[in-house]
Amino acid sequence: MAERTSKERAKLRIVREGALEQGREEAWRALLSAHAAAVERIERGLLEAGLPPLGWYDVLLELSAAPGCRLRMHELARAVVLSRSGLTRLVDRLEKAGLLRRKPDPEDGRGSFAVLTDDGARLREKMWPVYAEGIAKHFGAHISDEEAEVLIQALGRVRAAAGSS
């Protein structure tokens, strides 16, 4: 009997020990590694253009899309998938840069809103072309329209299921 390679042994171990069906673990790892690689290259493009990191864009985008360009801090944390402490540090930096301001929630004295400023809106608009070019170059150029649709459907189901648990 031929000796198995370490990669083959690892794959068998995962299938035997885990509850994953064939191909799911490989798809998960491909998703994570592709995301990390694309984001790293997009971040590099923003840096080379003299722009702030992608996390800043994500916060500015969520605020610009929200009614009144404002969100409660916990809503913003959920929207950008950050811990509250991570979001607090990021919001501190954005506030110091004049890109958003905190406003007390009149209905809940303990809570506050993050509110987009005009400077924040302008920076988001300035960042978008660099970000869009990065998405096109490091992601979009490598998938067909049909594959994009499959990804939208499949990842939409995953997100919906995760949101309901």
Could you describe the 3D structure shown?
The structure is a single chain. The protein is mostly helical. Helix content is 67%, strand content 11%. It has helices at 6-17, 24-48, 54-65, 73-80, 84-96, 118-138, 145-163, and strands spanning 70-72, 100-105, 108-116. It has a 3-stranded antiparallel β-sheet with strand order 1-3-2. A hairpin with a 2-residue loop joins strand 2 and strand 3. It is globular, with a radius of gyration of 20 Å. The model has no long low-confidence stretch (mean pLDDT 89).
* The CATH class of the domain at 51-163: Mainly Alpha
Shape: globular
Q: Quick one: CATH superfamily of the domain at 51-163? A: Winged helix-like DNA-binding domain superfamily/Winged helix DNA-binding domain
Distance between the termini: 45 Å
Architecture of the domain at 51-163 in CATH?
Answer: Orthogonal Bundle
In what order do the strands lie side by side in the largest sheet? 1-3-2
Please tally the helical runs, counting DSSP H or I stretches of 4 or more residues.
7
